[in-house]
Structures are given as structure tokens and as C-alpha cells.
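We were asked to recover a plausible sequence for a given structure. The inputs and outputs are reproduced exactly as logged, with field labels preserved.

PROBLEM: sequence recovery
POSITIONS: 431
GIVEN STRUCTURE:
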């Protein structure tokens, strides 16, 4: 009981501030890079290359990146990567000032930013459980705050700020993001060092990467946790691919209204992240994960049948809430049960599965809309989410979760065991 009311350590506050600043910069760049590309070309394929370049590192180096993070000092990895990204964006800003920006240069910047994100996100995921001593309750609270800040900064504040800065000049959003990475690097550099078990450096990097991936696929709980975002990405990308067209043709929503529709989803995401810990305590983490996944599927079916923009906005808000809670509970559980020396590889394997699934969802959504109408991808996505929920429910049930948490809990130190024995003896004497 007391564990749930423990305070988060001071180091977490610095990590939260660092990631909040970085998320704001990410939101700025997320809006500015496509707009920068648009000032250079109207070729849809060229624009798609810039957009897709940031996801390629996860597809090419996801598992290997996790193996490297498990070899390296995680705190140092984070601040060095942030410094490198700040320098990269500074160079890109200089190119904008000198009027030598090009589509290949923007694609290269997007690719390198994505590569930096791979290493930073994996290292941060592996560092947090060490900072919080793998306490499940603290991990849920910490991930709730991190997820909420990320949604607020990259989903609400960053994109309009990026567009506004771009109106001042092409270099301004790039400089703003560079500053955000500098702030993050300084804060991360001041975080406390945490001990970590180092893997055997004599073992090849490829063998270590394979060991991390096989660890996920052999464990039914971890596999269930990995399948949900992977299958979810297929469903959500199928929806995202046709959402603008659906909103325009079926709901009569204009460009401004479409932005409000997306804001409804982000608002739901903030709410879901905020109540995730409460749901985990009341229902158990396993049941909560099953319920949030079911809510996502039902909400997408509600979106598909929405008769007007208001119902569609409510459905997207409910779906966002389910997603926000899921993205707090799932990673928190993974961080609590995975051994420290495998954390980077397990996290990157799960993320890579989700990233690889996304293109299939985009293709599925486009094909279904072309062949059967614009509502069909939404119905298919809802059905897919509910099917995934049913398949993974037993894999991530409360009993399996509780058994994994017990197995991962550290043995009490001798002093604590002696104290427990004395307390039991005193209780027996009183009875």
C-alpha cells in the first residue's frame, strides 16, 4: 500500500523537464519539416520521402540499436544524442539561412533525427526503471506524466508554434528545436548515474540483438504487450490514411474542423494518460489493458458509423483515451518485469514491430477505401482491434501479470527479512 504513495525521486523531475522540452521541439519540427519541404517542391513523392525518412531507422536498426544501448551507459547515450541532434539542426538552420536547403538534405535531417530518436527513446526507456528501482506503481505514475507532457507538447503546443516560427523564416523552427535538444542534454547530463549490469562484450552484437528479440517472442506476456501496438498500428494507420477523406466526404468537415477533430483525439489521450494508474489499481493492470484495447475498437466502430462531426469527435476522444492509458500501462509493466541488461533490446524490439506494422495499415486502408468505400477501413480497423483484444486477453491477464511482477521483484535484503520476522513474531504475541 505504501509503495503507491511514494514520491518520485528528484531525478525524475529533471528527466520529465528534459523530455517535455524535447517533445515541444519535436512538435515544432513535426509541423515545420513537411512545410519546409513544401517550399522546395510540390512533388508528392518527394514530400513522402521526407515524411517517411524519420521512420526508416526503426525499420533498419531497431533491434541492433537496442543491443547497443544495452552495452552503453544509458544516461550518457541520452545527452550525447541530444547534443548531436542540436548540432544537426543547427547545421540545417545554417543551410536555410544560406538558402541551400534541398529535399535530399531535409530527408537526411529527418533520417538522422529519427536515428537519434531511436537511441534516445530506447535509452530513456531502459534508464527509467533503474531510476525508480523497478517499482510498478512509480513507473505507472512516471510514464503517465511523461506521456501527458509528450502529448501536450508535441500534439498541442509544438505544431502551431512550428507553423508560426516558419512564418518568420525557414531557420527559426530548426533553431527552436535545436535549443530544445540543448536544454534536454544539459538536464539529462545532471541526472544521477545508475548501476546497470553490462552484457558480455565478447558476444557479437548480432547475437545479443537476436537474444533480445527471442526473449520477447518466448514470453507470452511480453509477446502480448508487443502484439497490441503492432496490430493497433495496422488498424490506426488504416484509419489515419482515410480519415481526412472520411471527414470531408461523410461528415462535411472543412480543413479547420479536421484540425479540431484531431484535437479531440489528443485531448482524450491526455485524459487516458492521466487515469491510467487509477485504472491499473482498480482493475489490475492486465484487465485494464484488455478494457482499454476493447474501448479503442468500440470507439473506432463508433467513428465509422458516426452520423455527424460531434459524434465523430466524441468517438475519437474515447479512442484517444484508450490509447493514452494503454501507452502508459503497457510500457510501465514491461519496464517492471524485464531484466535490466535486456531492457534496451526488448523495448526496441517491441517498438520495431509496431513501426514495421504501420505501412501495412496504410496500404490496407487505401485499398479498402478504393474497393469498398471510405467507411470500410474504419469498420475493418474496429473489428481488427476487437479481435486482437480477444486474442491477447489471456496473454496479458491479471494472473499472468501478477506472476511476472512477483518473479521480477527483488529479494528482500537480510535486514529487511529479519525485520519482517520480528514483526510477525510481535503480531503472534499480540494475538
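RECOVERED SEQUENCE:
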Amino acid at each position: 500500500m505504501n509503495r503507491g504513495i511514494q514520491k518520485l525521486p528528484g531525478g525524475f523531475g529533471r528527466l520529465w523537464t528534459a523530455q517535455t522540452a524535447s517533445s515541444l521541439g519535436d512538435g515544432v519540427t513535426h509541423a515545420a519539416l513537411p512545410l519546409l519541404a513544401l517550399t522546395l517542391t510540390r512533388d508528392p513523392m518527394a514530400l513522402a520521402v521526407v515524411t517517411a525518412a524519420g521512420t526508416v531507422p526503426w525499420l533498419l536498426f531497431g533491434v541492433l540499436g537496442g543491443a547497443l544501448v544495452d552495452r552503453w551507459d544509458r544516461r550518457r547515450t541520452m545527452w550525447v544524442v541530444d547534443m548531436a541532434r542540436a548540432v544537426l539542426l543547427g547545421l540545417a538552420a545554417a543551410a536555410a539561412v544560406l538558402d541551400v536547403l534541398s529535399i535530399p538534405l531535409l530527408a537526411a535531417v529527418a533520417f538522422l533525427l529519427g536515428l537519434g530518436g531511436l537511441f534516445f527513446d530506447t535509452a530513456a526507456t531502459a534508464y527509467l526503471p533503474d531510476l525508480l528501482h523497478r517499482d510498478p506503481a512509480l513507473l505507472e505514475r512516471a510514464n503517465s506524466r511523461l506521456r501527458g507532457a509528450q502529448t501536450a507538447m508535441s500534439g498541442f503546443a509544438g505544431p502551431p508554434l512550428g507553423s508560426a516560427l516558419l512564418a518568420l523564416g525557414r531557420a527559426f523552427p530548426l533553431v527552436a528545436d535545436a535549443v530544445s535538444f540543448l536544454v534536454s542534454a544539459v538536464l539529462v547530463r545532471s541526472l544521477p548515474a545508475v548501476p546497470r549490469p553490462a552484457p558480455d562484450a565478447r558476444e557479437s552484437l548480432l547475437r545479443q540483438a537476436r537474444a533480445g528479440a527471442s526473449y520477447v517472442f518466448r514470453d507470452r506476456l511480453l509477446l502480448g504487450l508487443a502484439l497490441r501496438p503492432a496490430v493497433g498500428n495496422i488498424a490506426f494507420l488504416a484509419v489515419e490514411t482515410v480519415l481526412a477523406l472520411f471527414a470531408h466526404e461523410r461528415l462535411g468537415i472543412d480543413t479547420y474542423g479536421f484540425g479540431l477533430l484531431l484535437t479531440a483525439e489528443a485531448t482524450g489521450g491526455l485524459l487516458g494518460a492521466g487515469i491510467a494508474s487509477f485504472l491499473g489499481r482498480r482493475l489490475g493492470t492486465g484487465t485494464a489493458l484488455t478494457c482499454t484495447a476493447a474501448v479503442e475498437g468500440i470507439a473506432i466502430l463508433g467513428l465509422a458509423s458516426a452520423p455527424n462531426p460531434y459524434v465523430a469527435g466524441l468517438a475519437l476522444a474515447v479512442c484517444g483515451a484508450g490509447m493514452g492509458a494503454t501507452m502508459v500501462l503497457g510500457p510501465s509493466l514491461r519496464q517492471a518485469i524485464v531484466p535490466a541488461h535486456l531492457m534496451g533490446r526488448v523495448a526496441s524490439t517491441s517498438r520495431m514491430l509496431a513501426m514495421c506494422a504501420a505501412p501495412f495499415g496504410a496500404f490496407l486502408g487505401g485499398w479498402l477505401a478504393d474497393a469498398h468505400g471510405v467507411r470500410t477501413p474504419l469498420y475493418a480497423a474496429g473489428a481488427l482491434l476487437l479481435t486482437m483484444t480477444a486474442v491477447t486477453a489471456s496473454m496479458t491477464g491479471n494472473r499472468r501479470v501478477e506472476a511476472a511482477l512477483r518473479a521480477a521483484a527483488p529479494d528482500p535484503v537480510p535486514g529487511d527479512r529479519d525485520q519482517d520476522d520480528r514483526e510477525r513474531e510481535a503480531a503472534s504475541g499480540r494475538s
